[in-house]
Amino acid sequence: MGTLGRAAAEMQMKKLTYIGMELQFQWDQVAAFVTQPDGSLFSWRERFTCFRYLIYGIVNKMDSDISLKFDDKEFHWKQNESLLRRLEDEGVVKLVFPLHDEVKRKQLLRNWALNWHDFTWQPIDEVYSYFGTKIATYFAFLGMYTRWLFFPAVSGLATQLIDFGSLQWLVLPGFFIFVISWAVFFLQFWKRKNSALLARWGINYSFAEYKASANELDPLRHPLSVECVEEKKFDDAPAEKRRLQRNEWSGVLLRIRNNAIIVLGIICLQLPFELAYAHLYEKTETEALRYVLTAAYLVAIQYYTRIGGKVSVILIKYENNQGEQSSADSLIYKVFGLYFMQSYIGLFYHASLYRDILRLRQVLIQRLVVSQVLENLIENSIPYLKYSYKKYKAVHKKRQEKESPSGKSVRLTTRVEKEYLKPSYTASIGEELEDGLFDDFLELALQFGMIMMFACAFPLIFCFATLNNVTEIRADALKLLVMLKRPVPRAAATIGAWLNIFQFLIVMAICTNCLLLVCLYDEEGKWRIEPGLAAILIMEHALLLIKFGFSHFVPEEPAWVRANRVRYVAQAQTVCSKQLLRSISKLDTKWE
User: Residue 36, SS3?
Assistant: First the structure.
């Protein structure tokens, strides 16, 4: 622990103190800093950062180069060069990655991944201690989303099983209002849970947000020293202002250009493909062939959309995004736009063209069943197949070298070699900006959009989503603990841009379900089209009011979190005031 503490001090790492301020870590003042839920001083991400600093900090401090030899290969270790960097460049070190902690991994397997006693319970604090903030936040969101899904699932089941008699025509509008209200409150209560988790983990979100914005402004700043700042003339302010404005608007124009490229790609390439599938679906007569057609379509469109995602990654490199997080958010919006069209255009086509709720319900069932089966199969089988193939190649190489008299044996018995063969937890569109959580959050967002935008067409769809998410929690846990390398910890205080996407899908759900109700009641003759349209328009405006009004009724953070934050601010002001007064007194004494 002392080695990590001194490394953190050398790195000038910022940590949260008990007065709520993030200050530079000092090993001799360790009692002032907040500890983790498990009692340790550093989080997993902080320990990983310190470990990397230590191993990459081994440099040649000699006055000359050092000659090194490995497997009959000789190379020079230059002055002030990192030894590990040199070994990586020479191919001696293949990869630097964190190992699984076998004791904690087996404990998580027993208490989390293989624990089916409580369908949605998860040891979130243990997940945070082992994987870090970002993965723990994902599983906390997935668990809460699954628990809340039980409410619309039970309501949707009741609408299908119970005969309400003369009030049956009000069942779907009532269910629709309930679902929209449920979604609004779910997202608001998630914000409360998220703030409570951050407070429990000792993460000050306001300071984290400040640091992120400060890091984003770094590329716009000149590296000025204190002396330069003192000597800087006032005349430079207009030039600095013009430069900042130029950078800001050039970034906006680049994002508009890239978004236009994505939209044109959807219109010119993806939209005709989607309409061709919808046409072939109608021409296919048997249900078995329709399932086969849907499966082939989903597999093909997955690869097509991944190509679009890779193009988005390339486009983002030419944007003037201010920081890595801004680039990641831009990528999320672009790729979700591609998948949004891929997932829903066929459903919109059936709903608008045929105005047949039963046919739309049938298409929804096929899409949901086939897509969930394919996604779970691909998500869990591909890492296992990759690992099996790499292991087979390594074992085959070992056998050949054993038969060769001059060959050296290749051991696969160590845990490092076995974990090296496992795939990394990366996104399907590329690992430059996002890790594997990109695909997991994308899957949740697409599912949320499907169940919300077509809730009136098939209320039982919430039951399918609930069952899928219960298994998704355990499947994702097994994937991280068994099939993949231990992910590199990433800092994240919230789910980021995905929250905006969920908010957008609620607004889309209000519009699409109102259109579905118009088609349904006009066709069945329960309402005439004029009063039906009027009633549904009133309902749409009322639900938009619920969406944007009720979200302010539920506070985004619990009262105890807000009270702690206010107390921390008061304590920080008191400490800073005393320190400032002492500094002024010293200056006054010095001047005298």
Answer: coil
HEC letters along 272-306: HHHHHHHHHHHHCCCHHHHHHHHHHHHHHHHHHHH
Q: What is the pLDDT along the chain (592 residues), one digit of tens a residue?
A: 678 888 888 888 887 777 667 777 887 777 778 788 777 888 888 888 888 888 888 888 888 888 888 877 888 888 888 888 888 888 888 888 888 888 999 999 999 988 877 778 899 989 998 998 889 999 999 999 999 999 999 999 998 888 877 777 788 888 888 998 899 889 999 998 998 888 888 776 554 443 443 443 343 333 333 344 344 444 456 777 777 666 666 666 776 776 677 667 666 766 677 677 777 777 777 777 877 877 777 777 777 777 777 777 777 766 666 666 677 777 788 788 877 877 777 677 766 666 667 777 777 777 777 777 777 777 777 777 877 777 777 777 767 766 644 445 555 567 787 888 888 888 777 665 557 788 889 889 989 998 998 888 888 889 989 998 998 899 899 989 988 888 888 877 788 889 999 999 998 888 888 877 776 665 544 444 455 556 666 666 677 676 666 666 666 777 767 676 666 666 666 666 666 666 666 655 655 5
Please tell me the pTM assigned to this model. Answer: 0.80
Whether residue 424 contacts residue 319, with contact meaning beta carbons closer than 8 Å, is answered with: no
List CB contacts of 403: < 8 A, sequence separation 6 or more. Answer: none
DSSP helix/strand/coil, 22? strand
3-state secondary structure of 23: strand
**What is the SS3 assignment for 75?**
strand
Judge whether 510 and 145 are in contact, CB under 8 Å: no
Q: Round to whole Å and give the CA distance between 159 and 161.
A: 6
Structure tokens at 98: 């964190």
The Cα 194–Cα 206 span in angstroms is: 13
Taking the CA atoms of 542, 544, 549 and 550 in sequence, report the sign of the dihedral they define.
positive
